[in-house]
């Protein structure tokens, strides 16, 4: 093979962002062609594909934690990342190194010939390359956008999970749940388990599952769960699990996400048996940054990547479930293609003051635009230049008993996570009682 095009991960990623004419182009022909050149034979490991509007990252985390607790060598692929690109590709819980990702990129570059690839297609192929190289026992793959034409759908998964169906990415997936449900159902395969964790699945999702001959399993019909005091139970016609510990991830909705992951594992139990003790271990050890992540203190911080109305409604419910003694401030920012009014509407009743921040880039939205929308909704808002400045302002205004919720785009939550020691703890000024 010729010398690699670049020597560092940063160089590879910067080049990938300019290689394809558009950043998002939902097609499978490019990635399938390159995948065939790399490996004509399908992988030996079983694969689980996880799609849905919200909850994908949590379900991948549960599956990864429980499968690893059962002793399997697990490859996990997620997107986007918060702090480092390496977060996207994990093997046995460890992020792939820069050197490993660069090696994979070089092999993909050599195999593609003149075929251009998007940034996400390069990343998906790199994950699949590294999973083969590491001889994983199972791969858990998060869909990037939609499902039917997403790069991850180049893999014929042994089981597919659609966690939820809400309105998001309307310009690519359609503006109604029926159209979006059809796109999500594109990850289903004939005679293979297809789990739907949305309690109200759209008709076109159900129709597509029937048409392709997938073995559809629906929450409330084919599997279910219930809380019983400080524990919970999960069951289907063949299996019942009682006395399960609450999921380590925060929020009532995480019981549904964990239950969906258990439905996937139950559907693959003949090939990938997971004992009850491994399930319990996975539920209590699972970790996922930026999902209702709570940082306690005199002023509590909550970090969440809720960036569409459905996720904002879930966030609002969680805030109502655990009220604070003081005020709730919100630092947030959204990309231009997100439904800002829907997000604002979901949270106006629980947020006392808003600090919208600019998001840079072609798809970014300004804090001033968000502030105007907030004022139109009757909310108090102070626009700031970026997430860090918005956090400074919120922290300066906060008093003991208040809380600051940082939410929206990954590009808002990520810099706050990176700056967490001084953003969330430094005296900016000293706190006083409200």
CATH topology of the largest domain: UDP-N-acetylmuramoyl-L-alanine:D-glutamate ligase
Mean pLDDT: 93
CATH superfamily of the largest domain: Mur-like, catalytic domain
Shape: globular
Strand order of the largest sheet: 4-3-2-5-1-6-7-8
Query: What structural class do you assign from the helix and strand content?
Result: alpha/beta
Radius of gyration: 22 Å
Helical run tally:
16
Strand count, sense and closure of the main sheet? 8 strands, mixed
* Helix amount: 25-40%
Q: What amount of the residues lies in strands?
A: 15-25%
| Subunit arrangement of the protein | single chain
Poorly predicted parts: 428-434
Per DSSP E runs of 2 or more residues, the count of β-strands stands at 16
CATH class of the largest domain: Alpha Beta
The CATH architecture category of the largest domain equals: 3-Layer(aba) Sandwich
Quote the distance from N terminus to C terminus.
66 Å
Brief overview:
Mean pLDDT is 93; it is low at 428-434. The protein has helices at residues 9-19, 29-38, 56-69, 98-112, 119-134, 170-173, 177-184, 203-212, 253-267, 276-285, 309-321, 340-347, 367-376, 387-397, 410-418, 420-425, and strands at 47-51, 74-77, 89-91, 94-95, 138-142, 159-162, 193-196, 215-218, 224-228, 231-235, 240-244, 293-295, 300-304, 328-333, 353-356, 403-408.
Description:
The chain is of the alpha/beta class and 434 residues long. It folds into 2 domains: 9-285, Mur-like, catalytic domain (UDP-N-acetylmuramoyl-L-alanine:D-glutamate ligase, 3-Layer(aba) Sandwich); 293-425, Mur ligase, C-terminal domain (Protein-Tyrosine Phosphatase, Chain A, Alpha-Beta Complex), CATH 3.90.190. It has helices spanning 9-19, 29-38, 56-69, 98-112, 119-134, 170-173, 177-184, 203-212, 253-267, 276-285, 309-321, 340-347, 367-376, 387-397, 410-418, 420-425; strands at residues 47-51, 74-77, 89-91, 94-95, 138-142, 159-162, 193-196, 215-218, 224-228, 231-235, 240-244, 293-295, 300-304, 328-333, 353-356, 403-408. The strands form 3 sheets. It has an 8-stranded mixed beta sheet with strand order 4-3-2-5-1-6-7-8, sandwiched between helices. A 5-stranded mixed beta sheet has the order 12-13-16-14-15. A 3-stranded antiparallel beta sheet has the order 9-10-11, with helices on one face. Helix 12 (340-347) links the parallel strand 14 and strand 15. Helix 3 (56-69) packs across helix 9 (253-267) and helix 7 (177-184) runs parallel beside helix 8. The longest helix is centred in the N-terminal third of the chain and has 16 residues, at 119-134. It is globular and about 60 Å long.
